[in-house]
Amino acid sequence: MGSLSHPRGRLPRRVYWVRRAVVLVVALGLVLGLARLFGGTGSDGDDSTIKASPSSAREESTTTAPPVASLGPVAPPSSSTRPSSKVEVPLAAPDGDCEDDEITVLPEVKKANGGGPITILLGLTSTRAACTFDVSPESLVVKITSGDDRIWTSQDCPKSITETEVVVRSAQPVAVPVVWSGRRSDDECTNQPAWALPGFYHVYAAAYGSAPSDLQFEVTSAATITITKTPKPRPSATAKPRTSKPSGSVSSTASPRN
Question: Which CATH superfamily hosts domain 100-219?
Answer without folding.
Answer: Immunoglobulins (2.60.40.10)
